Amino acid sequence: MKTLIEILLVSTKLGLTSFGGPIAHLGYFHEEYVRRRKWLDEKSYADLVALCQFLPGPASSQVGIGVGVMRGGVLGGILAFIGFTAPSAAALILLALFLKGMEINDAGWIHGLKIVAVAVVAHAILGMAQKLTPDKPTKTIALLAIVAVLLWQTAYSQVAIIVIAALAGLIIFKSRENSQGTGNVEFPISRRFAVLCLVSFFGLLIVLPMLRGVASSSTLSLFDSFYRSGALVFGGGHVVLPLLEREFVPTGWLSKEEFLAGYGAAQAVPGPLFTFAAYIGAVINGWKGGLIATVAIFLPAFLLVFGTLPFWSSLRQSPRIKGALTGVNAAVVGILIAAFYNPIWTSSIHAPEDFAFAAVLFSMLAYWKLPPWIVVVAGIAVGLLFSIM
């Protein structure tokens, strides 16, 4: 029970302070779970990130769920999700109820939080690159991943890049001894339960549209739309927004102005961007709709993580899988660097003072070893100051 309470408290703290989108979330997770609390080692965290990059859905939320599972089983994964997701979901539901239709501008404090994301991601990239790209072959894979992501920007590009990197690693590193070792982590999930989760994932994807076609239930239609959006999106984060727009704006469930207002609000709150679904659901059907939307869009992430973790634990012991993971981990570093440039850097650093402030925040994390929440508070304060000056 003590472990479960700890998981909930730590994940809630992350849910209240993790600004900057899915790439920044991985940096926050790395700082809290790996560096500070040592719930898992660098290699195990990198393997978990690699797995979640393979899966459709919100990668950062899936990583959080996976860490919770490692620490406290299935219930630990659920509590880690609740803690990380509830703050932003609640905030967006409240905004939908009380600020419906109001346009949300890019205020100064939001810009400050974007600069915080620059510092956090830069800090995470530095640590991961030192561990995961120690030699020329891995650095080359990371470089090629950067180039590919920046020049080939589609919903499926990251998945294709990771698959190619895995094949390259399988060939290049299959006979190499992994000096970093493989994380010694147990996944307390049975394979029978895992298979049940995978069957449920594909079953719901097939059955829900069929039920929607024969039953005139707005709740079922809402659940189906959000479940398919969560199940079919690759890349997570911002990639889900066009899917949601196509599901709900042309059908008249909410206006384009309401959709854009909610998008602006989602940028201003911590936690996963997928909680934008909570806003849409609340606009359509009040707080109940917000809860239904949140459960539906994240359910595929749960089913996939629970369904793949037990098999991942055994497969990664294979020398061939280790080689593939080496390639994937190097590609993940490249993907993180590309995302650091676009959209994080391009949407945050517009003037010399922005870069100067980012350098200070980075130093607070990397050299002064201050906790992330202090960096977040500093970002808000200086962002407000910049808007006044």
UniProtKB/TrEMBL annotation:
Transmembrane region(s): 78-99, 111-129, 141-173, 193-214, 226-244, 265-284, 290-312, 324-344, 370-388
Keywords recorded for this protein, A-Z: Cell membrane, Membrane, Transmembrane, Transmembrane helix
A GO CC term attached to the entry: plasma membrane
Molecular function terms from GO: chromate transmembrane transporter activity
Compartments in which it is found: Cell membrane
Predominant location category: membrane
Membrane topology summary: Multi-pass membrane protein
Source organism, top-level taxon: Bacteria
UniProt keyword Nucleotide-binding present: no
PANTHER family: CHROMATE ION TRANSPORTER (EUROFUNG)
Family: Belongs to the chromate ion transporter (CHR) (TC 2.A.51) family.
Protein name per UniProt: Chromate efflux transporter
